[in-house]
C-alpha cells in the first residue's frame, strides 16, 4: 500500500520527535524551545494580520499579555496544578 500524501510521513515524524524531545533536552533547553514556539505562534498571527492585510492591531499583544499574566499567577499561587493550566490554555 502506497501513501498518497508524503506530508503525512513528515507530520508523523515531527510529532514523534516532539514527543521524545523532553527525554533528551535539559530543562533549560526545553523551556527555551517552548518560548520559541510560543513567540513563533504570536509572530505568525501578527504577520497574518499586519503583513497580509495591513491592519495594525494591538489586540494580539493584549491577549498574549493576559494569557502570560494568567499563567504566571497560576504558577505563583497554585504551583502544583499544572493540568489546570493546560485545561485553561486548551479552552
The secondary structure category is mainly alpha
State the order of secondary-structure elements, H for helix, E for strand: HHHH
Helix content: over 70%
Number of domains: 2
Question: What does the largest sheet look like?
Answer: none
What is the averaged pLDDT score? 82
Give the strand tally.
0
The separation of the N and C termini measures: 39 Å
The share of residues in extended strands comes to under 5%
Number of helices: 4
Shape category:
flat
Low-confidence stretches: none
Q: How many whole angstroms does the radius of gyration measure?
A: 17 Å
GO cellular component, one term: plasma membrane
Keywords: Cell membrane, Membrane, Transmembrane, Transmembrane helix
GO molecular function: branched-chain amino acid transmembrane transporter activity
Subcellular location: Cell membrane
Description:
- The model has no long low-confidence stretch (mean pLDDT 82).
- By secondary structure, this protein is an all-alpha fold.
- It folds into two domains: 1-53, no CATH class; 58-91.
- It has helices spanning 6-24, 27-53, 59-77, 82-90.
- Keywords: Cell membrane, Membrane, Transmembrane, Transmembrane helix.
- GO terms for molecular function: branched-chain amino acid transmembrane transporter activity.
- InterPro entries: ABC_transp_permease, LivM-like.
- It is a multi-pass membrane protein.
- It is found in: Cell membrane.
What would a concise description of this structure say?
Helix content is 81%, strand content 0%. The protein has 91 residues and is an all-alpha fold. It starts with 5 loop residues before the first helix and ends with a helix.
Amino acid at each position: 500500500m502506497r501513501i498518497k500524501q508524503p506530508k503525512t510521513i513528515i507530520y508523523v515524524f515531527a510529532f514523534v520527535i516532539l514527543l521524545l524531545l523532553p527525554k533528551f533536552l535539559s530543562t533549560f533547553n526545553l523551556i527555551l524551545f517552548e518560548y520559541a514556539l510560543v513567540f513563533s505562534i504570536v509572530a505568525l498571527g501578527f504577520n497574518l494580520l499586519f503583513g497580509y492585510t495591513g491592519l495594525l492591531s494591538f489586540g494580539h499583544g493584549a491577549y498574549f499579555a493576559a494569557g502570560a499574566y494568567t499563567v504566571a499567577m497560576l504558577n505563583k499561587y497554585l504551583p502544583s496544578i499544572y493540568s489546570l493550566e493546560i485545561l485553561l490554555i486548551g479552552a
